[in-house]
Input
Amino acid sequence: MIEKKKRKAIYNPEAEKRWKAKMTPEQKEERNRRNKFTIAKNFIAKGLYTPEELAELKALIEAATHD
Output
C-alpha cells in the first residue's frame, strides 16, 4: 500500500487576516469561547494551580451548574 505524505501546514498571516475579517460576530464569539476553554483545560491538566485556586474553580463550576 502506498503511503500518502501529509502536506505541512504553512502559516500565511495575510490569509489569517482575511479569514478573521470575514468572520461573523457569532463565529468570533465561538472562537473566543473555544480558546478560553482550551486555556482553562490546559491549566487544569498541567496542574498549574494551587489548592486554593482549585477550590475556587470548583466553586465557580458548581455555582454555574446550579443556575
